[in-house]
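User: What would this chain look like folded?
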Amino acid sequence: MSEFSFARAREQFQTHGAEALFELLCQDLRARHDFHKLFDALCLRKKYALGLPLGRPTAFDDVPASLRDEFESAYVAAAREVGHLLLADGKIPQAWMYFHAIRETQPIREALDRYPIPRESTEESEELIDLALYKGVHPVKGVEIQLRTHGTCSTITALDQMFPRLNPSDRAACAAVLVRSLHADVLQSVQRDVAQRMPFAPPAATLRELIAGREWLFADNNYHIDCSHLHSVVRFARSLSPEAPELALARDLAEYGAQLAPQFQYAGEPPFRDFYPAHIEFFKFLLREDSDRALHYFRGQLERETEDMDRALTAYVMVDLLVRMGRFADALPIAERHLLNADAEFATAFGELCEKAGRFDVLQRVSEARHDPVTFTAALLQEQAARPVAQGSAAG
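Assistant: Here's the prediction, encoded as structure tokens.
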């Protein structure tokens, strides 16, 4: 394509005026896919129309307050247009600059959804990992790309760093990716081991079935996967929702881990010091497999804890489990007894728990004991609003 014709631009301006010049300029930049300059040109066009200084087309500090809203609308429209044009060219990181500036991330997320996961690391894939995972635009896609191009170890390290910043939905989705991947690796490795030792053994449908009654798989400190990877992925799996199909896979991984030699069963924080057995109970509770036994297990942990912090950690896990299963009334006394005084920031969550349990009387009692008249007043009003309206008696 020939270069921009400055002579034609001059002629267009002299013959038809500034608007025709801008139209020529923008058409030329679109045709050349010179979208960064197109953004500047669109902003310049608006500044000219508003009679503003033209030296810095995209700057806001030379826009008076009376014209700021109008210029901002044009700026947003220009950024949106250029962002979509860059996406159409497959330039996701460049498009991000424009959508991020106008706080519209959904088009980038949708583009990442469509992006095929590469098999090897490239400069582009590294940019997309940074954008998707570290900038939080699409954490699951970032984990998928990282896992394919860098492997399990690097992905676990990256997710460990980002996990506290993710919302619950993204945590669950990222955990599911790693659970599926690691489970597939363990299953394949164990299947290979069984086939070598028992060539005519009937195939097993699950890892759980495959290891059942085969303690010899773990004899002589044997293992089939990096034990630190197993530990991390099982820990991530606590974020899975009760409906997640990966939850059963996580339980199977924990049951596998529980058969490893003791030196490969790394301890966790309370109530997961006995790491894999505790996680088996955790996952079984969410799977509704003997939930009462699981609850009894954690209640026993709670009663045996001697340190306040450890007791609070255990209580938090119990409350979290019960809330996720909709058992708000069962969670309430544990939260009141063990968490309210242990964590000053828990008061808001406790109020929400009382509301879900329909126990505004508990919230009133606690608020009165804590000398919190505002929450007490709110609880009184919430209790009144929650009462069914009494039907008037029939006229006699």
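Residues 390-396 have pLDDT under 50 and may be disordered. If you want, I can go into more detail on any region.
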